[in-house]
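Here is one chain, start to finish.
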Amino acid sequence: MKPIIGFTVSDDGVGFTAPNMTSFETLDSDFKADLGCRGVGRLLWLKAFDKVSVRSAYEDEEGKLRARQFRFSVAHEVEHDGNAGGFVRPGAVVSLDGFKKTFQQNAPKGVDAIAREIFEHCIWYFLRPGGAPVVTVTDDDESVSLADLMDEFVDSAMTASAIEVKGQKFDMLNLRLKATVRYSAPRLHWCAASRVVLEENLSGKVPGLHGRLADATSGEFVYACYLTSDFLDERVRSDRTAFDISDRIAGQPLVDDLSLDDIREAVFKEVAKILKDPLESAREQGKQRVHDFVTKRAPRYRPVLAKIEERGITVDPSVKDQDLELQLHRHLQKIESEAFVQGQEIFAEADADAEPAEDYTHRLAAYLATVSEINQSDLAAYVSRRRTVLDLLSRLIRADKGGKYSREDAIHSLIVPMRTESNDVAADGSNLWIIDERLAFHDYLASDKTLKSMPVTGSESTREPDIFATRLIDSPVLAAEGQKLPLPSIVVVEIKRPMRKDATEDKNPIQQCLDYVKRIRAGGVMTATGRPIPPTQDPPAFCYIVADLTEKMIERCEISDLRPTHDGLGYFGYNNAAKAYVEVMSFDGLVNAATERNRAFFDKLGLPT
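Its structure:
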């Protein structure tokens, strides 16, 4: 389609009479304020076009036909260019030339598209009392009348209603519009002086009113309201961009004090009546959307869903999962904060010398029930997160379309962040439970760090085990000063790339783990806080190797005298020389084992396993 390089706008009005010409040459003219004109529109011409030329005919005071023409530009403003010819009646022709590229690229193309854009922007002119002039968009032999587009945009007959707010009357013109790019959300149009002054998105402001609505008679539609009143006409600002009305009146308002919030509240109540049936249907669909999302994707909200619904949550049935998650999370946060305040009040009352109020027992029971539901929600979130982590791990161990597998560092980072120590990782910041639930209770943890950099080893080696941990058996991490610490255990984990085939003599992960254990035992072992651990002969050691069972890996397991697991997805055994338990897990075996350990929790929440 050919690019648009300019427009010509012609009319059969009174033309550029002397008063009209004077007004055109005056910035911020209020000459036609009663018609809703702000006197700044012509400045937008020069924002989008390089030059503007005007030809016009008008009748002078004696009734004789006169003509004039002039150019309008940023550099020279208004330049008169003598008389214009070719007119037999009053009117004007405005030529907008040199359509600037940035606007040209984003402008609609074709007569139909341009006509629809103009109609959508000016629809109020076709709805207001007195209507709009006949407007036709033409290009060569194509022509579209804007008045003919009414049926294309308005879904059904318009309805009018009136409301009274503190003695002031407001008229509402209610439309059911066919959904378009511009009209995809319900809107309230505040009108004054024959113009739309403000547009307000009504999504979520009336329960059930979001995007599209539907009913049995007209199908899907988008609601729009045009609000008019003498009160608004009298208080619109001169530039027609706002009203001189307070948003809200603080304190106890007088009878004649009227705020935008007062008007807005009355409009919302009327909208709820007008759209009663489709809103009820939308609320039911929104409720079902929440229930389906909580059941299938976010079970953490199930224990508190009843309380969230009590708070009046209404959602768009077409809302995206992430947006719905945010809404539910905001409600949960409010419930938690309110429960905290309620608990403080109840405990303060219990500690007071005076007798508790009569409803104290009831309030205490309600508070404890809420706390229980919140705790269940937290547990559900934790279990749900485990399900998500296992899903991610399952994807990472699959080959992509090109037959390539993820690097080991991607899997490593999922299990525990790389190049970190205990103090760098939050208590729930790692997923070591995938390998062994006991790894969650460690005294010191290092991920992809050199042995030399670890305070617990005393080693000068620059080699890096994937994951290394010490754990204090049957003892808290922080022991009282002078108390003899029990033996620490040592855990070393090696993670290899899925389907990696380089488990050669020099890269035998089993031997690598055993070497790490030997170096750790040989060092001057200290706790993570720098306190010496009493000398010990042979701290128990556990070596985990996560690698697929390639032919070479199976050969290394058999040479190390490891036994296959019952499911054939791993090997295990005890190395007497190193006094270490060794377990080799394939990635499928790792996922399966972690899933089985958590299956009871997943089933309880209705999560797929």
